[in-house]
Amino acid sequence: MKRKWQIVSLFFMLLFLASCGAGNEAKDSKEALKNRESPSAKSLETGFKLWVITDVHYIAPSLHDDGKKFDFIVSTSAGKDLNYQTETLEALVMQAKKEQPDVLVVSGDLTLNGEKQSAIELADYFKEIEKNGTEVYVIPGNHDISDGWAKKYRGDQAEATEQILPKDFKSIFKKNGYQQAISSDPTSLSYLVAPRKNLWIMMIDSNKYSWSASKGAPVTSGSIREDTYQWMSENFQLAKEQGAKIIPVMHHNLMDHNQLVNRGFTIDKAENLQDFFAKEKVDFVLSGHIHAQDIASLDVKGHKIYDIVTGSFMMAPNPIGEFTYQDGSFTYQRQTTDVDGWAKETGATNLDLLQHSAYLAENMQKDGESFAIGQIYEEQWADKSQLDSVATFIGNANQRFFGGESYVAPENVKETQEQLAKNPAYQVLQQHPESSLTSYIDSIYIDQDTNNVQMEFPFN
After folding, report:
1. pTM (2 d.p.)
2. Are 279 and 49 spatial neighbours (Cβ–Cβ below 8 Å)?
3. With contact defined as beta carbons under 8 Å apart, do 233 and 224 qualify?
């Protein structure tokens, strides 16, 4: 019995010491930041360029053999390209070298399912990008930490592989934000960087995960810890004192981007975070998670906030969100990673690479068609004579939505609705009002909020 109480006492002593250390780290960070005249000697300048990519879902080639089991993973990847990931990343490295962005932000789901080897190899690509002067900052997504789905694929078998634990993530990507941090949250993987004297970027860990290895599926939903709110509040106050503006980045969405599909994607208790950002006069937030190119906006107590999601980097058209600063505002433009150009320049002969844009579009089309056909059979439609027509329509609509092309200006809404009503495949869907495909199309086809690929945001 005495031995048992000694162990219990030792446990609580270690817990107490750990919490004291965390408190001192936060205090030291706060004091250090207060005492620094400026985290960066250089102020935000005209032409400053920030890139953002998200949902890379990279899997190290050494973790699969292109066998039967991995083919199944590829076929069920929901439009993500798992075949040419290394080539796409090499194209990104080349493009960054040519265009010289000042900062590259990666807003989560760096790996397919939290494989440690995938993270190690991905960090090497970021190292190459940083050699040319671009600062790379990363934050985990819901698939990156303690993910029980972390597997390696051999033949027709899937075997467990080493997972990324929280300490691993911080160590592997130490040169991609954590070492540059001017403040770190002791209770999560959140941190703050200052690429310019008056421009700070807050990388917020919004994920739910175990601190040890897991056997289960990753948690889709996200939340902000109370301690993290406190850390954020202190840093926003410090930013005000030093005349800096903060851009928050997180994996989960600040607001709903789709009226039908948002549970688990929009952060838990979103109203609290929306109120917090409105109070701090945040103009826009960068997030990911939904894989679709979409910009949503919300008026919160008289302050308008935008939630900017650049599409998944491994889906058509390998998007990069590019922010360029000029005259007190940021212009956002969705760009494309030029894999076609990279393939031509490096002497590639594979048509999937030389015509990569077309290859990705075909992937998305086929995925949408398979989804539609699966739903029609699951719902047991009596008449399947129009199955191909409906499947093609769903595939086209998916490309339009995930590519950010679903925005319709107010003056064009009526005309678009009339054209949609005349579409034979849509008319078939209207004959099945209870079908999930019908409600799905109605939720994605016409976006009346904002342009999803190009916007200008004040940034005073």
Report:
1. 0.91
2. no
3. no
